[in-house]
Design goal:
With 348 residues, the chain is of the alpha/beta class. The chain is 29% helix and 27% strand.
Amino acid sequence: MPTIAELAARAEDRVNAVVVRVLTRRGYTPRVVAYPSYGTVSRSRVRARVLLTAPDAPTPGSVERRGWRNLLSAELPDAVVRARTAPGTDGEEVLEVRTDRSGYVDAPVEIDLEPGWQTLYLSVDGGDADVPAPVQVVDPAATHGIVSDIDDTVLVTMVPRPHQAAWNFLVRSEARRKPVPGMPELYGRLTATYPQAPVFYLSTGAWNTASALGRFLHRVGLPQGSLLLTDLGPTGTALLRSGREHKAATLRRLAEELPGLQWVLVGDDGQHDPQVYETFAAEHPGRVAAIAVRELSVQEQVAQNGLPGPTPATRRAVDDLDRSAVVTVHAPDGEALARQLAEAGVIS
């Protein structure tokens, strides 16, 4: 007998199939939204989503199409996406892949690229062509990598409050979103200390927000990085994806794909970041240089947990973590975290 999660996934697929048929008859066409990804000098990942939109509509996620307008589209499953090394016929085709049931592509491609930010070009059959897809190619000489949470770590959000999250996504101007105090300066010192370090923004936030997040990071002076977000819908095995498991699984994959890096992990104490990071450090001895935890204010803790302080789960330590090998700091803002990391010799 099918589980509730399986039934929910099937229902979602049936509804989306009807929406796709209706929009296709109305002349909607496939559009590619490319997400900042990562790779090595010999193998990279292509991450994107294909949506159906009106032919004259702005690109999903663009400034002209922010907020509630991004709801006026539908994901396109089983669409054929191709990646080339340069626009048009000048580039070699290096990948052909079909989107999953939610319209996503997350596919490895064997390709030689120079270290630094490079660009592949994505096209979808029957729609967009030559959409730039940025790829952060990790330098073989890099010794460290930086992983950062987003919500209430670098961006003031109080996301767990439903009405606040809805207001932020549907109505509020992007220009009014504020960084957590001191965080741009902290990340500036981290990237100055480790100039070859790749940066990854790991969040339980939805991919729908990726374009807006990228603009926010640039506007407030945070370093460019690969986005590691998630899809919030039913999976066939669960009604909702586990944000905690998403973070844990993504960290494990980064460790496997980039085995030469030692990690600096930055998060907040509102939910499960400390426990996820400490568990990862315990499972990967010698692979974590530092864990920096931003302490939320009482107001933020109440918004996150309904309690005036960290939950017992976030306070509980991982018993088998070798704390002598991992610098762990806690502070309410980026300035204080930077001071503690400097005192510990993690940053200059």
